[in-house]
């Protein structure tokens, strides 16, 4: 299925690469906010018929190229599959959400990162893209749920080298021209990124001691 054959408006669409628990959670988050979703995996669109049926109206199955053609692209695959999932794609000018955690299945052991942050590694795999780290501190189960609970709003941490893609990410869980429903906290990527030395279930976005603290800008997502 070629990208141009998908009958969607690319600008208010979110492409999700990965159709496991995390990919489904990201898709539900965007759909709940009224955005169209193109979900893709390594097996092709035909393998995603039941997935799209479960997601409901607004969800389409596509190729990785279809997903990459959307306004925002979410990377939601296991760490060991990141390199193969993003290879062979032109990432120039794309806004890519890194929703991964550097953990190796099935034991969830930290992946060796060679002294770099996980997002530095991912950024090197998507040259030319504007990378944003987001939501990897939430389990797929939590991320896929309604963010408004008992009068409160779930917090999502968003980090990137510039605020423009971080602000753009905020739309993927916010309906166009509507009042946003949850808060996110932005911080520079250098100060807030996954280091691989955390335990499962803890936040993967943490301040780095070698980077001066900077005030965060709160935005709605």
The CATH class, by name, is Alpha Beta
Please name the CATH topology: Rossmann fold
Mean pLDDT: 75
What is the H level of CATH, i.e. the homologous superfamily? NAD(P)-binding Rossmann-like Domain
Just name the CATH architecture.
Answer: 3-Layer(aba) Sandwich
Percent helix, as a range, is: 10-25%
Look at the helices and sheets and give the structural class: alpha/beta
The termini sit apart by 31 Å
What multimeric state do the chains show? single chain
Q: Major sheet: size, sense and barrel closure? A: 9 strands, mixed
Topology:
Elements: E1 13-17, H1 21-32, E2 36-40, H2 49-55, E3 59-61, H3 64-68, E4 72-75, H4 82-86, E5 95-98, E6 103-104, E7 109-110, H5 118-125, E8 130-134, H6 140-143, E9 148-149, E10 152-153, E11 156-160, H7 163-170, E12 183-188, E13 192-193, E14 206-207, E15 217-220
Parallel strand pairs: 1-2, 1-4, 2-3, 4-5, 5-8, 11-12
Antiparallel strand pairs: 6-7, 8-11, 9-10, 12-15, 13-14
């Amino acid at each position: 299925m070629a990208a141009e054959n998908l009958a969607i408006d690319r600008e208010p669409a979110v492409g999700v690469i990965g159709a496991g628990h995390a990919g489904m959670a990201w898709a539900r988050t965007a759909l709940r906010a009224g955005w169209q979703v193109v979900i893709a995996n390594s097996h092709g669109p035909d393998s995603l018929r039941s997935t799209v049926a479960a997601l409901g109206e607004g969800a389409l199955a596509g190729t990785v190229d279809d997903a990459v053609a959307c306004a925002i692209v979410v990377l939601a695959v296991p760490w060991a599959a990141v390199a193969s999932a993003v290879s062979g794609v032109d990432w120039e000018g794309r806004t890519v959400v890194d929703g991964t955690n550097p953990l190796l299945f099935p034991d969830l052991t930290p992946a060796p990162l060679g002294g770099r942050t996980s997002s530095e590694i991912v950024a090197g795999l998507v040259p030319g893209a504007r990378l944003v780290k987001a939501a990897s501190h939430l389990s797929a189960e939590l991320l896929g749920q309604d963010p408004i609970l008992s009068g409160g709003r779930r917090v999502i941490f968003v980090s990137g080298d510039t605020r423009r893609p971080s602000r753009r990410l905020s739309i993927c869980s916010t309906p166009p021209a509507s009042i946003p429903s949850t808060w996110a906290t932005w911080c520079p990527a250098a100060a807030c990124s996954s280091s691989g030395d955390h335990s499962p279930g803890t936040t993967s976005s943490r301040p780095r001691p070698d980077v001066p603290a900077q005030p965060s800008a709160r935005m709605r997502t």
